[in-house]
Specification:
Helix 2 runs parallel beside helix 3. With 167 residues, this protein is α/β, with parallel strands linked by helices. It contains 6 helices and 7 strands, in the order H-H-E-H-E-H-E-E-H-E-H-E-E. It has a single domain, classed as Vaccinia Virus protein VP39 (Rossmann fold, 3-Layer(aba) Sandwich). It has a 7-stranded mixed beta sheet, with helices on both faces.
Amino acid sequence: MSNKLTKREMKACSHIFPLVRAFEQSEGDVLELGTGYFSTLLLHWMCTMTGRKLISYDTEEKWAKKAQETWANDNHEIYHIKDLDSVNITDRHWGLVFIDHAPSIRRQIDTLRLKDHADFLVLHDTEPREDKRYRYSEVYKYFKYVYRYTKHFPHTAVISNFKEFKP
């Protein structure tokens, strides 16, 4: 067994550095839209170690089920939902929101929905070639602070109307 990550695995975890830095610079509950092996595990342990609440939603049943079986506990709620409009994610101010969910158009919709409800929003897959899918370029103008992390592919952005991100 090799101890090197595959190209596919590297792509799946390109957001780790900005996600960790945004977590360190925020306080309060964490919202994850879209679960996965890297982000969910990382956010789960960081929230567990710091006593912060993590709530994860996924529209894909297989991912939600994997996450529930592996990480759900008193500090980490994980839900499978068919439609994010059915969930009130703007009922509080989040310390951090990680956006990496399906369907692709929901990323833009939910980013704008949460623009005034989170210290930081971390957006995965922000490189220009993905803009037709996620349309992130259309949301940046609604944020006071926009940081683009382009050292690893796919790119990640950290945006906020409350705090300037310090890489």
